[in-house]
Amino acid sequence: MRLDEHQQLSRELMNAFRQLRQLNWTGLRSNDGLTKAEIMTLFHIRHATRQEPAGPKASELARSLNVTMPTVTQTVNVLEARGLLERHRDPADRRAVRIRLTTEGEAVMSRNHAIMLNKIGSVVEHLGAERSRELIEILQEVFRFYSTDPASICPPPQENK
Question: In terms of pTM, does the model score above 0.85?
Answer without folding.
Answer: no
